[in-house]
Design goal:
342 residues, alpha+beta, Immunoglobulin-like, elongated
Amino acid sequence: MTMSSVASVCVMALLTFQGVYADEWNVTYPSESICVVVGDSVDMSCSYTYPPEVTIKQAYWTKLDSGDHPDLRGDPQYRDRIVITQYATKQCDLRIRSVTLLDAGKYYCSFTTHTEGQQWIGKPGVDLHVRDAPHIPSVSISPSGDIVEGTDVTLTCKNRSDLPVQSYNWYKRVNTTHLHLGTGNPYTIKDIAPEDNGEYFCRSGYEFGNKYSCTVRLQVFSEEKSSIMAAVIPVFVCGPLALLTVVFLLRRKCLKGVLAKRDEQDASGNIRGNPDTILMIPVHPSQNPNTSQPDAVYQSLNPNTTQPDAVYQSLNPNTTQPDAVYQSLNPNTTQPDASAHE
């Protein structure tokens, strides 16, 4: 293999060991630039050749192109996240899991030989680009609310990522399959019909992958059902209010009847006010209802049916005659004849 042919298919080695020519060393990188998002895994690979006089002790990957070219497996940043595999077919692979923004940079295949202190590195290596992971897109429906048959409905795929979106694709879920509807954003369904009912979602395509939205459900109503719903909703809202109004009016009417009957009884001479309060009025022994006629009971209890003199005569001492009060108590008021007679 000549120098020109090697240069066309591989990357030449930087260093030449004593007694070894540069055209006998070469490294090939299948991909010299890779782009991934945060959290993903990435694979890199290199294949190499070396002079027959040289024995390769170890092939590994490094991130430094100068100095001692340390093995990534000894770096705390990568120790638990990488796997390096060396094959007998003169190939060495690197896998990095859970990529972070700090992982961006150049990676190189490097070799050590059985000759102490001899190292060899192949350039230009692999350039790793790391981007923030895009967010899951969402889908909005316009117009909002009930979708009536015959209208145009627009679906919009919304992305919150700063990464450029290269393509949009729309799908409808049909049983266990996904029916591809079209591309572009937004996506419009013309003259929608009941058979368009179902779940829809979008796919946002990026340079290094795709993101799918959650599904949204589209419910189409016919014009007749839409009119029925418009009539039923006021009934559900106004029905309870009407029932409460009827109950209030009936109660008010009943209350008026009770009051009217009470007024009628009051007009005919029945007891007014609170019966409990009236029954607490002291009753003179002569007004005991057990010894009087029914007419006399009400006559003694109802102030409207008794004469003022009769009420106060037995209760108010101011209404009795002085002679009657003191005659039995005051000795000065007794008759001389009665005293002498004794």
